[in-house]
């Protein structure tokens, strides 16, 4: 309740936390000092109760100043000063350490608070001042005794019990409150850590949806371009034939829904056969076998994936696109793969094998799987193929190509 009056709009989180610790500490000190003043010293007489009552009044004044100014430095400085001089002054005035039951021990409360609210250097300095003042008070008791009425010897033991009990209670209550605040802060930190971990997991998942796991991990530890050469890779391009007319007569939402359903199936097929999905380019789907980690028989994997893609598309029925077909191209050879740029990373491929696979797709026929002579040679005896004959391929000249019909009969 009081905390809302001492917190200022510009306070940092550290200042708010310190005030939430300091206010209960002052309230406990007010209550306990009042008990000590009334129960012990006021019972001896008004003169003996002057300094304990002043100490309690100082705690009340400090709380008021904190509400009015919001200054922790000012209020802790006053608290330290009053705890340094008043308890030790009371000890000297009423007959010394033993007679007063160790009332001077209350002065430790100043450095104790300093360890929480001030720097380690300041806290050590405050504790050193207390030790010097304590030693000076003990010497003053011997050489410059007070003229005030001393505490009767018969009551010293009871004063010792009262002072130590109240002081230890003060320390224990504040430690418990400090522990409570620490637990609350730890719970908040754990919640923040959990949310951060969830965000990190989502980011990891998104990153792994864009990049192969090994490449994603390398990119996190080695920022910058990544490039690797692979000698035995098979590249597959799958393009939806006559997609442009479909896009013209279909709503954007439905068009994206159709593509998503098709490519969702293709993702499963690529994963099933050990292909690495590279990217989608409009209505085209690109994947490769043999990277970023080598695999056995990459050409066979691409051939089986191509046949499964055809079957998957035939099983999908779209009212907007009856008889939709794929045009697929496959070629094998060396490629360079990697990640370039600073934003919107993509794992991409470069090289003649990529260009030829793309040409196989673009020079193919709807509903057919078009193979280069290199791919056909690798797939011989295990798949049914028909020779297409020499064709002119842009950038390559005349090439002998084949159509893949299916797996070889056993």
Give the tags.
rod-shaped; alpha+beta; 13 helices; 410 residues; 2 domains
Distance between the termini: 85 Å
Shape summary = rod-shaped
As a percent range, the share of helical residues equals 55-70%
Number of domains: 2
Which H/E pattern describes the elements?
Answer: HHHHHHHHEHHEEHEEHEHEE
- Under the CATH scheme, which class of the largest domain? Alpha Beta
Decide which structural class fits the backbone.
Answer: alpha+beta
- Number of helical elements: 13
- Strand portion: 15-25%
Number-wise, the strands total 8
List low-confidence stretches. none
Biggest sheet statistics: 8 strands, mixed
User: What is the CATH superfamily label of the largest domain?
Assistant: Nucleotide cyclase, GGDEF domain
What CATH architecture of the largest domain do you see?
2-Layer Sandwich
Give Rg in angstroms.
Answer: 42 Å
The fold-level CATH name of the largest domain is Alpha-Beta Plaits
Mean pLDDT, to the nearest integer, reads 86
């Amino acid at each position: 309740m009081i905390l809302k009056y001492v917190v200022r709009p510009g306070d940092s989180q550290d200042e708010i936390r310190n005030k939430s610790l300091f206010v209960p500490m002052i309230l406990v000190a007010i209550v306990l000092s009042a008990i000590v003043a009334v129960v012990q010293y006021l019972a001896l007489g008004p003169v003996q109760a002057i300094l304990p009552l002043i100490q309690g009044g100082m705690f009340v004044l400090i709380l008021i100043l904190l509400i009015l100014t919001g200054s922790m430095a000012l209020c802790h400085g006053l608290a330290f000063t009053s705890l340094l001089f008043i308890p030790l002054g009371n000890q000297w005035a009423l007959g010394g350490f033993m007679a007063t039951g160790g009332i001077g021990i209350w002065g430790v409360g100043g450095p104790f608070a300093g360890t929480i609210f001030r720097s380690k250097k300041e806290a050590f300095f405050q504790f050193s001042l207390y030790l010097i003042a304590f030693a000076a008070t003990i010497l003053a008791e011997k050489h410059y005794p007070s003229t005030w009425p001393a505490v009767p010897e018969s009551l010293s033991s009871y004063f010792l019990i009262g002072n130590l009990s109240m002081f230890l209670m003060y320390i224990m209550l504040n430690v418990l409150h400090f522990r409570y605040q620490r637990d609350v802060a730890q719970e908040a930190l754990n919640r923040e850590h959990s949310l951060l971990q969830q965000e990190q997991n989502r980011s990891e998942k998104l990153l792994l949806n864009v990049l192969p796991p090994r490449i994603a991990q390398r990119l996190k530890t080695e920022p910058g371009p990544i490039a690797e050469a692979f000698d035995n890779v098979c590249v597959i391009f799958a393009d939806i034939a006559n997609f442009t007319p479909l896009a013209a007569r279909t709503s954007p939402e439905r068009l994206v829904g159709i593509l998503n359903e098709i490519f969702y199936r293709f993702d499963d097929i690529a994963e099933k056969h050990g292909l690495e999905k590279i990217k989608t380019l409009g209505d085209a789907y690109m994947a490769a076998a043999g990277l970023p980690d080598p695999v056995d028989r990459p050409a066979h994997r691409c051939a089986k994936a191509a046949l499964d893609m055809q079957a998957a598309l035939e099983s999908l029925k779209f009212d907007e696109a009856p008889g939709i077909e794929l045009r697929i191209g496959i070629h094998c050879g060396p490629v360079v793969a990697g990640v370039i740029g600073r934003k919107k990373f993509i794992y991409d491929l470069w090289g003649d094998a990529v260009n030829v696979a793309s040409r196989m797709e673009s020079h193919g026929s709807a509903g057919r799987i078009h193979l280069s002579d290199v791919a056909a040679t690798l797939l011989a005896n295990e798949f049914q193929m028909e020779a297409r004959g020499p064709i002119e391929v842009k950038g390559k000249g005349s090439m002998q190509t084949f159509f893949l019909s299916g797996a070889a009969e056993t």
